[in-house]
Amino acid sequence: MFHNIELDKSQPIYIQIKNYFRTMIAKGMLQKGERLPSTRELSMTLNVSRNTVISAYESLMDDGFINVIEGKGAFVADINVSSNSGWHIDWNSRINDYATAARDLDIVKHEAAWKKDMIPMSSISPDPELFPMDDFKRAFMNILSLEGYKILNYGYAKGYKPLIDLLLEYMEGKGINVDGKDLIITNGFTEAFEILLSCLVSEGDSILCENPTHNTALKIMKLKKLNICGGNMSEDGINIEDVKRIVQSKKIKLAYITPSYHNPTGITMPWEKRMELFHTLMSYNIPIIENGFNEELRYFGSHISPVAAIEGNGNSVVYIGSFSKVLFPGLRIGWILGDKSLIDYVESVKRSRNIHTSFIDQAVLYQFIREGYFEKYIKKVRRVYRQKYEDVVSAVRENIPDAKLYGDGGLHVFIKHEGIDSRQLLKECIKKNVIFTPGDIFYIDREVKNTFRLGFSRVKSEDIAKGIKIIGLQIKEMKNKG
């Protein structure tokens, strides 16, 4: 049977041999006391060196799977292997309402998936081809040299102290007063928002947000069984009259807003409107959770400070930041900046769930930023993404002239087109190898059917006009048929 061992170059040969025998023994296919081939015999059978087989046998012996008797050979150890015919549980019948709802709201499982050769206008993740790999490697090696084994040990729930201090400075650079505030590192935006809601709301509470809004945030709010009150989006952000109507008629516990490069519309709220929104919510004593989404990807105009900068030395705005849509989303590093007493509770909730965010990831990111690589990277990608943004706007205006186009920067634009069903449009475009995100997943009740989001970050420059032209042609065909 040992002729069936298939070896490849994916990992060391001795480990493959070890794993083969380990699996055979664990499954009961090799019984207690059964003799294994000699190292010489197996090396000849597999055409590998005898030392390789010796290393495999030594590793099996270290793991307790075989015994080696000098002068006699290697034998299967006394391993407890189950011979039970099988005990089966109907897990579907045991799933609770939370898990069922999570699955129902999981767009990865229910939305159309990108396939090879498609023009990927559904993604708003950064283009990995722009990642500064050499700089990242240098930062990685430098932090290992500086920290040594310490960075591979358990860390702290709040995060890696040098990174916390650096991000506090970063927040001050955005005009936010950090006096009386603290910062905690999280696994991206998703964990940050979920933990904050776990600390601040209960089932049935009302929360104010834009409509449409970030699908992940919407999913979390629905899983918390909150009463989601949406203010419609105007061309310059959430409609303030809607906000006033909602806060006057509902007991709102929290407000969740994304004032810069809003997901999905891409709208950036002007400073005057941020002030008006802040003072409206302040008059009703409604705390704000601000999502600092893609603030780094500003292509035009002057910097607009976050809403958190309006409060001065107050503590009413909790800011969630993340570099996931700008840099290395695989690192999953975000943060919450908020009142010290609030962060104290957030820290305990985080510790109860996952102890801490990966310390080595935090340390490498700290080193990457500290050495100036992040600043260099942002300068480069702003130029690349700005050109793509301008190409998208130009192509939409040329190929979908009747569409309403939203988006002030970032990595996406939002399209509204009267008389079309974006689901049906997507179905036809997929046949032509173009995929985008239908807009209904961003609305509270999925009530709007004539919108869609176009991401351009991972689309090759030459494919932007091609993809949007295909979308425009499909819209014309649908309208002609209608």
From TrEMBL:
One of its GO terms (molecular function) is pyridoxal phosphate binding. InterPro entries: Aminotransferase_I/II_large, HTH_trans_reg/aminotransferase, PyrdxlP-dep_Trfase, PyrdxlP-dep_Trfase_major, PyrdxlP-dep_Trfase_small, Tscrpt_reg_HTH_GntR, WH-like_DNA-bd_sf, WH_DNA-bd_sf. Pfam families: Aminotran_1_2, GntR. PROSITE patterns: HTH_GNTR. Residues 11-79 form the HTH gntR-type domain. The keyword Transit peptide does not apply. It comes from the Bacteria. Keywords: DNA-binding, Pyridoxal phosphate, Transcription, Transcription regulation. In the C-terminal section; belongs to the class-I pyridoxal-phosphate-dependent aminotransferase family. This is Transcriptional regulator, GntR family. It comes from Lutispora thermophila DSM 19022. The lineage of its organism: Bacteria, Bacillati, Bacillota, Clostridia, Lutisporales.
